[in-house]
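Final report, results section. Input specification for complex C-07:
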Amino acid sequence: MFKSFINTILGKNKNNIYENQQASKLTKSFKKNTMIFENIFKNDDTIMFREIQSKSPNSPKLKIISIDGMSDKILASKSIIEPIQNSYIDKNDTLDSIVNKSLTTSNISISGDIDKIIGSILYGDTIIIVENFDEILIVDSKGWSNRNITEPSSENVVRGPREGFVESILVNISLIRRKIQTPNLKFSFRQLGKQTNTKIGICYIEGIVNDKIVAELNTRLDKINIDSILESGYIEELIRDSPLSPFSTIGYTERPDTVAANLLEGRIGLLIDGTPIVLTLPYLFIENFQSCEDYYMNYIYSSFNRMLRWLGFFISTSIPAIYVAMATFHQEMIPTPLLLSISAARDGVPFPTIVETTLMLIVFEILREGGKRLPSPMGSTIGFVGAVVLGEAAVSARIVSSPIVIIVALTGLGNFLNPQMIGCMNLIRLSLLLLSAFLGLYGYIFGIIGFSIHLMSMRSFGIPYMLNVGDIKFEDIKDTTIRAPWWLMEYRPKLLSSKNNTRSTTAKPTPGESK
Amino acid sequence: MKKIIIFCIIFCISFTGCWDYVEISDKAIVAGIAVDYDADLNQLLLTIETAVPKTSKGEMTVESGIISQTGKDFFEALRSLVTKTSKKLLFSHTKVIILSKSMIEKEEILIGVIDFLKRDSKPRDDIWVVLSNESTASEIYYDSKVKLQDITSYHLDDILNNVSSVSKYQPIALWEFVDILSSKGKSLTLPTVELDSSQKSTVPIVFGDAVFNGIKYVGWLNGSESRNLLILLDKLNGGIIVVNPSSMNDTKGSPDKKNVNISLEVLKSSTKITPVFSSDTITMNIEVDLTAIIGEITGEFNYIDKNHMGTLKKICERYITNEISNLLDKLQKDYKTDVIGFGKIVEIENPKLWNNLKSNWNKEFTKINTDVSVNLKIRGSALRSDTIKTER
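Structure output:
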């Protein structure tokens, strides 16, 4: 008793107004039906009601309801109002015959479920209430404006398709469908978010995908109970493995070709309405170092690029830590000329090396974060400030020593090779840096061991996160740090697609054989 | 379980040897050490050269800082140096230690220095040990004005590293020094450093080897003798052999009676010493295989002709054989010191005999017969196939 009282006060009672209104049901009374919708959209000025009649003298009353801005007004007047007004609808006609006789739009459904109807109105459909029916016509008239399909700015390629996802889930589905034209490509939808009712599309290829992973994804999605889903990040954090880890266990992309490739390897795509980002899962550590372009370019060059990304990862995470360890603990490991130049550069610098390094790394992060949000005309100013103030002035004023500037610049360069991992690399870099500042290389190795254990223990939807990273069998490393030529990649990744494993049986091209 | 893991982590962190966070700029980088012995005061005189890096107007220069300190022993003197350098000394980048003759004969001081260098964790085992041919070791630092490099010690280090292009000394690293000193059957040589003031500025040069019997200085080998020693030790990797046939008493078969010098650049050299034991004598068969190219010929000599080629080869072989025999004579008769390691060879080949001989090896060494044979392969003659003729 007391508890429920408290809950009422704190607003914890889950019955909100919206749900209360759903209690009412559609009846055969035209007036009551109209009243229901008028009540639901009571204080909403964008809702449009219009009552029309057909030419028939015995015409039933029809009420058209839609939302201004969401539905296409021209379509409504040309394909709904005009044909109805010009046709002869009798009171005895069924809803089906009305649809058949008088409506010229293609996608029309009949429903008595008030939840669905409201959802449709909110999603831009037009509904028609017909006198004497307890069911309602839902006419597809979605007509909000979309962003055009453009090249995704976050994942540019030199060679490869130039299209990127947009904010509309329907357009996004079409983009994927256009790449994979098989009836086995399945989409299943659900709505998440009690207020936003965001549409989520789960997409996979039947016969390739591992059914257990689909089932696991569905159970995890079932557990979501949240009021809003505004971006894919919401879902990612709600369903991911190792929620405390800095490493992402669900991938994301803006490119349809990447999603298509992932689907074809047996992964699942998760489309979220309202964002151009599509989630892919399971996600492996090795995917951080792969880019869609790798598969389009010469395989030798691609393999080299992948190794560069590993190198970038190492540089970005370890160089500051190794520098601090060597310069403050293991001076004997530095070649003599380098030691002399470091010593000369540090001459007169007031701070210890670790303070210098941390300071400069933080300044670099400030520049990076600042440059990201600023409008582009001001963005270049940031770079200028960074180069002049830090590169030149700080060194000549002896606030920091010049090797540190080089180290930080190297770190930044390494960052840019793996843009999706920047946040995670920052964390690794700082923890390794602190460890080596306390314990030297011993501490650094300590940190490396710790991160290795963490990575090795992780899973993404049941698939080991470090799958194929430490493998030495040629079959397993074909698409890891190296990218084997397509005529060698006969099989899909083992654990991801257990059913239909064969990808290709094309032999190595041998031109001239046909002669 | 969790507690155990936490304890493990804490112990791992706290029981390490790496607790010494020290900034590079807080340490004085010791490039080289010179050790002298002051007999009057019965004290050790330690001179260190530190590399002092400086930046001025964006350009880095390294200056040499030389400081001396006396002390009862090496360690004490080192620590007292801090009062002069103001910084702790960093020995990780020390390249050279220069000993003086007076100091090396004082056994307890020599042992003290080596003991410290081997015991302390910072100095490396590959520090070069050299002997000053001047009266003291410290004057190498004080008086030399190296122009090519600012730090005398690094200058010496480079000279010793480039042994294969000159082969006029045998570099000895600290570990070798200790190794040879503490074993029987081989005696020590040390490369000698001296100041060359024949030019306008005084430059330290490394030239020749000092020969020790135990720790007693017995004599000195000049540049070409040192090279021949390197041949005997199978350590020759390059260098020049100047064959001067006219200097030999036996000039039979030489191209002409003119003074013709032939410089051979050694490409490869391998030496095999096999002992032959007879009832009362030991004979060492020394086979030298040399591969060389002709680097320079002074005078006229048609060597490309097959016959002449053979003659040239024979002259050179005889000359080198002669040189090596001379060196062996000098070591056996004058210095009476086994720096080649014949004793080691006997120990390996005939341990029983060695047990009898080892107590009196210095005397036995002088009695060893040697048989030197040199096999020279002349690979080529660089860019020319004949000598330059001048028409007068």
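The interface with chain A takes residues 12-13, 16, 18-25, 27, 29, 51, 53-55, 58, 60-62, 90, 92-93, 95, 122, 124, 154 of chain B (CB under 8 Å). Residues 65 and 232 of chain B are 40 Å apart (CA to CA). This concludes the modelling results for the funded period.
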